[in-house]
Amino acid sequence: MKADSVNKKNSQVLGKRLVRDWNLNKWKYAMIVPVLIYLAFFCYKPMYGLIVAFKDYKLTRGIGGSGWADPWYKWFASFVSDPYFPRVLKNTFLISALTILFGFPAPILLALLINEVRNGIFKRMVQTITYMPYFISLVVMCGIINVFCKQDGLFSQIAVLFGGAAQNYLANPKYFRTVYVLSDIWQKIGWDSIIYLAALAGIDQEQYEAARVDGANRFRQMVYITLPGLMPTIMILFILRMGNILNVGYEKILLLYNASTYEVADVISTYTYRLSFPASGTPMYSKSTAIGLFNTLVNVFFLLVTNAISKKSTKSGLF
Amino acid sequence: MKRKLVALLLCGAVALSALSGCGAADKDVASDRDGVGEESGVGEDVGKNDGGSKEDVSGEEAGITYPLDGGSVSWYAEGNINPHEKYADASESPFHIGLSENLGVDIDWSFPTAGSDGGTFTTTLLADASSLPNIMLTFWMDKANQLLDDEVIWDLTDYIEEFAPDYYAWLQTNPAYDLAMKTDDGRYYAFGFFREDGGWNDTYEGPVVRRDWMDECGLEVPETISEFENVIRVFNEKYGAVFNASYIRYKDSGFSGAFGSYANANSNYGWYIKDGIVSLAQSESEWRNYVSWQNKLWEEGLIDQDILTEDDTTIKSKIHNDKCGISITTMGQMNNWNKEREAEGKEPVWIGIPYPKADDGTISSVFGGPGIGTHTTVITKSADEETMKLCLKVLNYAYTEEGFLYWNYGTEGVSWEYDDKGVPAFSDMVTEDPDTDPITKYNGTTWGAPGIQATNLLHLKNSRASVEADDAWFYVWPDDKEKNLAVTSGWKWPVGTTFLAEEADELDEISGNIPTYVEESYVAFLNGSKDIDDDTVWNQYLNDLETYNLSRVLEIRQACYDRYKAR
Predict the structure, then answer these.
(1) Can you tell me the distance from the alpha carbon of A54 to that of A70, in angstroms, rounded to the nearest whole number?
(2) In angstroms, rounded to a whole number, what is the distance separating the alpha carbons of residues B458 and B31?
(3) In what order do the strands lie in the sheet with B350-352?
(4) Which residue in A84, A280, A283, A277 sits closest to B271, CA to CA?
């Protein structure tokens, strides 16, 4: 009896609270509507298309008209049994892991350094210069990289200056990953540091004062106050980044690779691209959709694992 | 209704102005499609009839008179049939307005969205097969069977003679044309693009050299591959220059003909035909010799290390800084190099030279084609029977004498006049126009279109040096037409072959790795990271090709070719 009445009371309270909340925030809710519509049309509706991964899809017959694949895992099996599968999987993981290993800490370091700079003009100058590459279109960016990496390009000239040999860095499989990762850092470091700078601004200044009173130098302040203050932001971004571990974008690789670097540069997305936009023959939409689905499942797996580990060790996670 | 139209025009305007920046580049890409990635080529009897087109296609006895008595059709086109970048849409474009007037038919034009690749865009339109435009310019020849069976496009066999008599007559002028434009079981389904010259301009790519350096070094135009190699060596000693080229140009054919081979790194060129047998050039000993020769030059530093990353833009810094004196490129690019030199106040020195032959004077192939395009114009099932008949008449126009002139030059007295020799020549309005490619404001056949491209148009459009270069590349055996055609296009996989639906599915599934593997192996052989002269390495390469289903792919292609031949 008693529990019942409590429940009843609670639900009444909940009802009242909802009504009040609605009255108070109805315009805020209205603002969410476009986002919901966007999600519904561009994220949920297209999911219907995933069905193609289990069909022998033909454009002219449409999704409904095409027959089911036999067996249902036909396209997944065809991908996994492809002689190129181990290579593209390995390359995807390696390039992604290297980008995370070197590319993820870079903007954090930059933000910490910028944070320590006291000279306002210099600080703003550094920020502007590091942001700039982000706004260059990828095609132009890769054009620049291409020219720099040539046999008579910038890097070769620097190498020669220090007694090395001139060579084309993009034609040598040994250097492809280095070029890829370094140029990635160069392009994104400034932009990615913005969020950390914002988080830094949120750290309570009194903590620093207290630390100074306790005799902590600036390095110690950074280690014991700034870094822990940044930790939740770092963790969330890291988990999100891990959720993209198999998403090495095809655009940049397509623009940078050539036949001499296929063996280290060919990744899942470029493989899929070749299936979807073949030089001759028909696009294989079913197989490329199957690969996309495979990719997503692996990504989700990594996201969940990272999230679990993060929750255990730092008590912060996405959900 | 009016408001809707205005909105539509505005949309078009925005789309086009966004496109206009890269208009010139688009054109170039479109013209590349000629060979790259598209399967083109045909047997020996191609082009027997070139030159006689105008007489053959007269429409008088056929009985269709233009303008027709009204009606309207919707028409999707792309590439050079897009309105010129200066115009917001087709309603402002002189070519499109004039075409509609001459035909007496309203045309509702549509084109690929700004910024998209025409070929891909065309294919994706199929995703909504029920609302296709009536007339479409497509690249669907290899899947014609499926499209006919799925009732996406009209089978024109029963109507073509009556409603497109001039086109039908044109096809009958050359067995190769007729062969290419129907399926294995004889169904007509498309209007093709033909070059009046029967393939001359399909050899738009070839070796070029700096004339001034040749003179300074006292060198003759090289005829054999040894002499060609010597030019590279002399230029290297004297100027420190090396052989270099834009990779997408070089990878197609290169100088494979001098070694008895048919392709360089691009396996789309590698599927060649000899004595009725389909083979892959990149799996044969001739190709091995060719690549071994390239490897020798590479090791000696005579081929630029950057060649694999070079494109038409980046190559220019080498060309204009005296780092390269001998190369392989297109008519258009060579023309650009010369023009850019002139803009800097230098002499235009680049000239085309013939493809080198083997030292014993033989040559198996040069870059080329049969003068038939792979872009065909089809009528879709969105047209009911009456509309379909109207569409046939509309498309027939380009193959009549009057329509041939209009599609190539525009309106007589406006964009062109007959010159003193009775040959069409563009008027000042076109020749003095400072815009890029002003010809395309008035004509439709500078590249793939349903029609016949006049050879005279190519002479008017290109510089003299370019035309001479094309002559040098194409006329390998100037005195023997048959022999010449065998070298320029006789070896190529034919245009208009159709795979059966099952074959097409199987090919898609099993053949995807061959192009990638061939290309990366080529590069490894070229730079020596794999030794092509080592038999173990070579045999391993052949074995790997086998695991990528080479035998099965050849089997399917052979069956397809045999059916084509038996049409």
Answers:
(1) 8
(2) 13
(3) B326-330, B205-210, B350-352
(4) A280
- Which of A56, A58, A59, A257 best probes binding to B when mutated, by most B CB atoms within 10 angstroms? A59
Which residues touch A104 (CB under 8 Å, ≥6 apart)? A237, A238, A241
In DSSP notation, B217-276 reads HTPPPP-BHHHHHHHHHHHHHHH---B---HHHHTTSTTGGGGT---SS-HHHHEEEETT
What is residue B56's three-state secondary structure? helix
How far is residue A150's CA from residue A140's CA, in Å, rounded to a whole number?
Answer: 16
> What span, in angstroms and rounded, lies between the C-alpha atoms of A88 and A268?
5
Residue A32 at interface with chain B, using a CB cutoff of 8 Å:
no
Q: How far is B118 from chain A (nearest CA, A)?
A: 12
d(CA B181, CA B390): 20
Q: Which residues contact B143 (CB under 8 A, 6 or more apart)?
A: A282, B498, B499, B501, B504
Determine contact: A281 vs chain B, CB below 8 A.
Answer: yes
Rounded-to-integer distance, Cα A190 and Cα A134, Å: 8
Q: Which two tokens stand for residue B405?
A: 């002139």
Tokens of B272: 């060649």
A258 contacts chain B (CB < 8 A): yes
Ordered DSSP codes for B127-152: GGGGG--SEEEE--GGGHHHHHHTTS
Identify the DSSP state of A240: H
One-letter amino acid for residue B283 of the chain = S
Q: CB distance A279–B515 less than 8 Å?
A: yes
Helix (H) or strand (E) holding A197: helix A173-201
Walk along chain A (319 residues) and give the pLDDT tens digit of each residue: 455 555 666 667 888 888 888 888 889 899 999 999 999 999 899 888 899 999 988 887 888 888 898 888 999 998 999 889 999 999 999 999 999 999 999 999 999 999 888 888 999 999 999 999 999 999 999 999 988 998 888 999 999 999 888 888 998 899 999 999 999 999 999 999 999 999 998 888 899 899 999 988 888 988 899 988 898 889 889 888 888 888 887 889 999 988 889 889 999 999 998 888 876 667 888 999 999 999 889 889 988 998 898 888 877 777 7
The torsion angle over the Cα atoms of residues B65, B439, B5 and B108, rounded to 10 degrees, is 40
What contacts A11, CB < 8 A, 6 or more positions away?
none
Residue of A147, A274, A282 lying closest to B143 (CB–CB):
A282
Distance in angstroms between the alpha carbons of the first and the last residue of chain A: 36
Residue B210 has a CB neighbour count (10 Å cut-off) of: 24
> Residue A182 in contact with residue A133, Cβ under 8 Å?
no
